Amino acid sequence: MNRLLILRFFVFVTVVLGVNYIAWRWLFSLNWHAWWIAVPLVVAETYSLIDVSLFGLAMWRARPRELPKTVPLGTTVDVFITTYDEPIDLVMITARHARDIRYPHSTWLLDDGARPELAAAAADLGVGYIKRGADWVDRPLHAKAGNLNNALMSTNGELLLILDADQVPQPEILDKTLGYFDDERVALVQTPQLFGNVPIGDPLGSQAPLFYGPIQQGKDGWNAAFFCGSNAILRREALMQLGITGYVTEVERAVDTALRGAHRVIKRALRSVPKSNEMMHTALADVGQAVDAAKASIDSGESLSGVTYTLQRRVAEVSQAMVAVDVQLLAQDLRAIEEMDAGGADSDFIMNIDATMEVLGSRDLSPLGAVESVQTLLRSIDVDRSREAQPLMPLATISVTEDMATSMRLHGLGWKSVYHHELLAVGLAPEDLGTMLKQRLRWAQGTMQVLIRENPLVQRGMTLAQRLMYFSTMWSYLSGFATIVYFAAPIVFLCFGILPVNTSAWQFFLHFLPFMIANQVLFAFAGRGVSTWRGQQYSLALFPVWIEATVSAAANVFFGRPLSFIVTSKVRGAYRPQWSLITPQIIVSVALTIATVIGITRLVLGVGEPIGTAVNLAWVTLDLVVLSVLVPAVRYRGFDYKQEE
Amino acid sequence: MDFTVQELGKGIAVVRGAGRLNMVSAGQLRELVAAAVAGGSARIVVDLAAVDFIDSSGLGALVNGLKIARQAGGDLRISAPTDQVKLVLQLTNMERVLASYPTVESAYAND
């Protein structure tokens, strides 16, 4: 309790000093003559203040939870191990440990790679094996979310433990966590993710002690602990409820959109069909009436399945009639041809007008494009969600980070979540920079997709604090833009002597230093002695990744472009450091170094202002130290299992 | 939970259940509907008169059955939902999608 009070005190002090500093920066110290660097800098600083304030909001309630006292008996549990292309040996280690979890359960391998060898290995071990069925062919697969959604339909445990293929669970994982589900509103228990193949010093910044610790505990304090994809237990009822409500929303939206579209298309079709074609006109008008009637029925509260069923029936009748018209015309043409060229190849066709009518009626062969587009559109007005492999998609498919999107929706429906701070599964982290960057890019892209598609600030059903907890994580991924400004500002000063801040050195230190110090103290105290420095370094040093993620996620959501990815060399053994992966950071480092030389030269020549130069040199040094984290990262050759044991 | 399937002719089949339509019995319902549709009865009525509890997995089985029936040119309708079932249909908004009828006979009376 005392600890929490002290933490809250630091949060309070940091935010007050931060507001004091930023207000002074905006109101009294902005160098408007150099607005092109001064405004970006103060905007970046404001961004950072909001970032630290949101962090502070989480810390306000960051404390360990009371552990559940009982383990419920007789709860049915499915353990899902998701795999795609991981080595079979590795998957089977996880599978064996999953099978040996103490609490009674069923273990399933969810194999998106559909590998027969894995199916055989699963059978040998006595665990279940699930792969995608025929319904998924030629339909969106939705990656891991799709894999889990597929498995949900063929299993029936009340709870689901989700494990990545490389997360080896401990036998007591369910005994320790099932007690939370005595509260019937609890939908999710997330446990930490830690990696066993990370050497001391953590060159790739794999461990996230601040996130799987104070941050998740703080979010938990606001009932907003996130689902992080693995090492988590979920309640099936909650997921299925998401699936049902999602299905209803989707169907309502799709039918509404399609009916509106149909109305417009029919009007256009009526214009494009020549007036002389009376039968076609009548047919289109009939369909138009049926569409309008369907809209009216829906507005009066009739069920969507009933309305669409009636509509489909009506459309089928009319389109049969339309095709009959077409075939009559076609037959006339063909007869004319036949008369000209007796015994032509098409003569058989004419004999079978009735059969052809059937065929044309059931296929898309209507000769008139207008009618065809009407038919295609009308057929899409249905409640079977036929563009998806299955009508229910309990895990969200709007993002490559289905976990965050799913827990946000669960919170939106009023479910509770729990963060259980105890290591109950040990995983494997990427062992080279390329794979690590790829993974970070995916996380950042997914988070940005959720932000753009379902901005938590405007989602109903969540409390303000819950919205801010989700927004906080998304906000922190925007840091790439601020970081560029933080690199640019000292370069501008050292090279050109332009200061974005218009003040005396004394005034600057008076406002800036207390905030900076409070900020660092807050982080150090919140981290409970765990070093958060590696994490801070990476959040700055990976600025190109965050920027690329933001840009490509926006291009994906708004323009349907595929998400970008990082290409890494697949050749193992033939190890070569891939410096090209960090080209932007190398360019920035060189620029910072050149700026340092120029700044010192200017100082020596008496052009540079001493205190400003000193501050900016210190700033540049800090930037270079931060970026230096990438040197051992590029040179890292993977985990040495022998040496570490 | 036990289900019975009764063919009414004209491509209509009635699936009756009694007790709890939940995550345990949902799979069975799904299979019965699929089998009925495959057997030529694409117009399904799920009679819920004796179903006193339904959860989201149960609803999921109904949605799945609806899809299967629709793709075979038929439909899935429910009849005689009890109060708990009606409440769940309301809460999940499923009543906007699924057509509900007071009796089995009335389900396809107008088609």
What does this structure look like?
The complex is a heterodimer of chains A (645) and B (111). Chain A has helices spanning 2-28, 35-59, 88-99, 116-125, 143-152, 173-177, 211-221, 236-272, 278-299, 304-340, 347-351, 353-362, 369-379, 402-412, 433-453, 464-476, 479-496, 505-526, 533-541, 543-559, 583-604, 610-627, 630-635, 641-644; strands spanning 77-83, 106-111, 128-130, 159-164, 168-169, 186-190, 194-195, 232-235, 416-419, 425-427. With 645 residues, chain A is of the alpha/beta class. Chain A folds into three domains: 2-60 and 476-563 and 579-635, no CATH class; 77-234 and 400-431, Alpha-Beta Complex (Spore Coat Polysaccharide Biosynthesis Protein SpsA, Chain A); 245-379. In chain A, the strands form two sheets. A seven-stranded mixed sheet of chain A has the order 3-2-1-4-8-6-9, with helices on both faces. The longest helix of chain A is centred in the middle third of the chain and has 37 residues, at 236-272. Chain A is globular and about 100 Å long. Chain B is α/β, with parallel strands linked by helices. Chain B has a single domain, classed as 2-Layer Sandwich (Transcription Regulator spoIIAA). In chain B, 38% of the residues lie in helices and 33% in strands. Chain B is built from four helices and five strands, in the order ββαβαβαβα. The longest helix of chain B is centred in the middle third of the chain and has 16 residues, at 56-71. The A-B interface holds A 153-154, 156-158, 236-237, 240-241, 243-245, 247-249, 251-252, 302-306, 309, 313, 382-386, 390-392 and B 23-24, 26-27, 55-57, 59-60, 63-64, 66-67, 70-71, 75-77, 92-100, 111.
